[in-house]
Amino acid sequence: MAASAPARTGAPPARRVPALHRPRTLLATVLLVLGCLLAPPALATGWARAELTDTARYTATTAPLSRDPAVQRNMVTAITDGVMRRVDLSSLVDAVPPADRPAVRERFTRGIREFVATQIRGVVTSRSFPALWSRVNGTTHASLVTALASPGDRSVVLDLQPVVDRARARLVHTVPAGARLIQRVHVSGTTLVLLRSDEVAEARGPYAAVRTLGRLLPVAAVLSLAAGLLLAPRRRRALIGTGLGCAAGGVLLLAAFAAARGYALDALPPAVTGAAGSAVYDTLTASARLGGGALLATGLTAGCAAVLSGVLARRVRARRALRGR
């Protein structure tokens, strides 16, 4: 009796990678791992480079902050404090008996502070303030770029004098007597020190590194991932691994920005409140965090799509094997 043919199980035999493909597989693996490792820092440095070197982009990014209530309150308080530090009431209380001068000075100080805060608040909440905000931020960012890109001892400040000037102009048309009072007590503007000269000197090295890496790392990450996928003999498996690696990179990037948020808020200048600092940090990092979320979503989508295509391919092969019996 002739030997019967072996029964078909319906499952294809396991495919082994030919010896000639092993160097190619190794190279593809190295490239894909490198690309997954480079993806998070590439997004972070690309974002930092764009925000640090492009004044127009920075101005557009920070434009919504002009309508943020916490930022508005902080600005009113900071400007009012700066103005009150420069108020000289001596000429107003000289005519008062010496015994009454402390009480008179306190009442005058309280009244002038309320008056100044009201006028500054009127400017900050006006419809024309966003344009003024953009101009102030653009000037500040340009001075930051100049300080970081050139040698010398200089600090970076946020000059709020334009807001005070706008309040003066507003007073001229609304409360002329108030304007004369402000001029009489020698009110001037205020500035917020963002970076001291020693901090600027320390930041020049990281700034130069960000400018270089922000241009090179994104290109290197994309080329590594693309080359690795093209070289991989088993592209479905390579795509699954790459997707999971990119998803993990997205999670790490989001976690890094969440951790950096606490450090950034702890390092705020005394004149900046926590609520205003939180609004500024969240606004500035929104695009980077969006990139991290996109990396996570893209990685999961690519990995799931590769797994699903593999399941469908196995089912098609199984059906063909059953039909061939």
UniProtKB/TrEMBL annotation:
Keywords: Membrane, Transmembrane, Transmembrane helix. The chain crosses the membrane at residues 213-232, 239-260, 290-313. It comes from the Bacteria. This is Integral membrane protein. The lineage of its organism: Bacteria, Bacillati, Actinomycetota, Actinomycetes, Kitasatosporales.
